[in-house]
Design a protein that fits this description.
- The chain is of the alpha+beta class and about 350 residues long.
- Among the domains are: about 70 residues, no CATH class; about 50 residues, no CATH class; about 70 residues, no CATH class.
- It is built from 20 helices and 18 strands.
- A hairpin with a 7-residue loop joins β1 and β2.
- The N terminus is likely disordered.
Amino acid sequence: PLQFVLDLRPPFSGTSTLAFPDLRAAEMQPMAAVVVGSCILAFGQLATALRNVPPTTAASECLGIIDRETCEDSRGRLNMPCRGWGGSTCLPLNATAESITDPTICAQALTLLGVETLGWGGKCLGPEAECEDITLPDVCDDSKAKVGLLCAGWDGSSCLTPDASAELITVDTILPKAVRCAEAESEQRCQELVGSGVCAGWGGHSCLEHGSPARSITLESICRNSMRFLSIPSIGWGGNACLSFEDANCHDITDRQICEQSAERLGLECTGWGGHTCLTHGSPLSMITDPAECENSLALTGAQSVGWGGSRCLGADEGCKGIASKHICEFSASLLGLTCSGWHSTLGCLEKNLVDR
């Protein structure tokens, strides 16, 4: 048969010579039909295979992550994009406000997770939430300010909408919650109010309303379980009070052992024990009430003391008037580097210039 030469240029390097039979158009038509048919059949099989692929399991895989650190780096560690940590599990990209189980995360959900919420009302409330979704009496009673919903108030078991019938609005609904809880003088009476949803629970010496500060809790055992028992968040027990996330500091710690383990127990970075309270850099020298600790004043407070004055650590600017011991006053020059005039039975240690006058 006749042959012809086809010259192929780049992308192939050099020149290639291919030989093709000289076929008539009529002879090529059946062959073309076979090729096209084969292609159609192959694409059909591929489409069928793709339809049979199981749906993505990314959402369930994210929910299966129960470690916050892994969740927040799920893309890097597992090549799995997740929304972020919701409080008890890792949230998928399609997570809603209702999936969030931590009040603090709920309050910052838009920043942390990109999820819009109204706030915490016993659960995390989404933009479509209504008064009936609120399960905390204190949030219901102040719903407009706390979650942006206008509600009629708490009826003892649920949050009422503004159009609730008059029969549902009782004296308990309009009576301030603090009054109701404060009137419970016993733990038993408090538990009755807890059962009706009015109060949070017994704090150790009094019945606490929902949303009470952690400092209202006066028993260590309750403080350690404040979220579970009362839905009141706390960082832990400080020695004689329960400490809150919002305003706790090292000075609130009144137990030496807790102070020395403050970072592990409470998440507070303190410098050490001062004698009666825990210290941090910036604490006044007067808070050091232990002579031995006074020698470490620079490490404890960031300020150098001139020495022990009899009842507390003295700063360089306090002078003789800060000395509370007759013996230290009389030997102030050698002990503290201060020149004092002597001890007065009423005025205490006198500055030198007072006597000179």
